[in-house]
Write a structure and sequence with these properties.
CATH class of the largest domain: Alpha Beta
Strand content: 25-35%
Largest sheet: 7 strands, antiparallel
Number of strands: 15
Radius of gyration: 21 Å
CATH superfamily of the largest domain: Glutaredoxin
CATH architecture of the largest domain: 3-Layer(aba) Sandwich
């Protein structure tokens, strides 16, 4: 296991992982959410316009990891109906309130903010041209993203209003937590010089194939992500090469984002191979034993567990210059890669 001493002390803890399990909001929590944000927002109970369909409400879940105090923080929200139907496309309106140290606090909601749909890259599901719209059941196809100023740690409430196509005005609420400081590797941190597994390690019998990628069972399996399994992060840093690091578990990802993310990065690696190295680190060394890969733990392990997937961009100096939690923004990632000098150029 990596010596965590150059990094935050929490990374020396025994690896455990708490994956995203908030896509379906329990009924008791949903009831609490409807009373958490204060009664002075003027919104009333969620309902349709009464002319085009039955009364429904929205089920909202924060899909953000490691959200901290500061300006322009990326908040991403998964939106379903109370019948677990997916909502996708277009924009929604979000109003926030700081609830204090307890999730059941009350506070006045702030000004309306606009969140825009961000599809999951690599997932072959069409986004409706008109939106937001109900597009099916159960499977997450994307999130709604907005940049927000969070001036206090603790619990925050979010009240969401959507004008659903062929339905009308519907609403929902959720609560999410904001930390004082990041717990995972953050922008501005020196990148952990990680000696992650590569294909040659598996071929040499140093680790099982599934520890390289959870889709593999033997070295004879077709490794679709082989280009992401050639480089060690510590070697890229030592060579002064920018590196994109995806920490994901394509088979065991609860939110079902990891597989599409890994496939998307194959395309990005092919188009930007002259700007950076690309690395996929499988989360699990042994899923049955619930043992994390040390190379993943050093990036995403926190005091209370961790979440996946993550994408980190490390520049030529070995500094983390960008990170994307859960759902990567392809426009931001590809713009950052385009801004890098061609490898080998002065």
């Amino acid at each position: 296991m990596l010596d965590p001493s150059p990094h935050r002390s929490h990374r020396s803890r025994r690896p455990t992982l708490r994956t995203l399990r908030t896509m379906a909001i329990p009924a008791v929590l949903a009831a609490m959410l409807l009373s958490s944000c204060g009664a002075d927002d003027g919104a009333g109970d969620a309902a349709t316009d009464g002319s085009t369909g039955p009364e429904i409400t929205l089920a909202i879940a924060s899909a953000s990891f490691d959200l901290t105090v500061g300006e322009d923080r990326r908040l991403i929200l998964a939106v379903f109906t109370d019948q677990r139907e997916r909502v996708a496309g277009g924009t929604i309106t979000v109003r926030l309130a700081h609830l204090g140290d307890e999730p059941g606090g009350q506070a006045a909601l702030g000004a309306p903010l606009t969140a825009t749909f961000l599809p999951i890259s690599g997932l072959d599901i069409a986004v409706p041209e008109r939106g937001p719209a109900v597009v099916g059941t159960d499977v997450l196809t994307g999130v709604y993203r907005l940049d927000v100023d969070l001036d206090a740690a603790g619990f925050w409430g979010a009240s969401v209003t959507a004008e659903l196509v062929d339905v009308g005005t519907v609403e929902g609420r959720t609560v999410f937590r904001v930390l004082e400081a990041p717990e995972a590797v953050a922008v501005g941190d020196p990148a952990p010089p990680t000696p992650n597994l590569v294909r040659e390690d598996i071929e040499a019998g140093l680790a099982p194939a599934s520890a390289l990628d959870s889709r593999l069972t033997t070295t004879d399996d077709d490794d679709r992500a082989e280009v992401l399994h050639r480089t060690r992060v510590d070697d890229a840093i030592a060579a002064g090469r920018p590196v994109v690091i995806a920490i994901s578990t394509p088979v065991y990802c609860v939110s079902l984002v990891c597989g599409p993310l890994t496939e998307y990065l194959l395309d990005v690696a092919a188009r930007f191979e002259d700007r950076a190295d690309f690395v996929h680190i499988e989360v699990w060394e042994d899923f049955e034993a619930q043992r994390l890969n040390p190379a993943a733990a050093v990036w995403i392990q926190t005091d209370t567990g961790g979440n996946e997937p993550w994408v980190f961009l490390v520049d030529a100096s070995g500094t983390v210059v960008a990170r994307w939690d859960n759902v990567v923004d392809p426009v931001e990632l590809e713009a950052a890669l385009s801004a890098l000098p061609v490898l080998g150029d002065a």
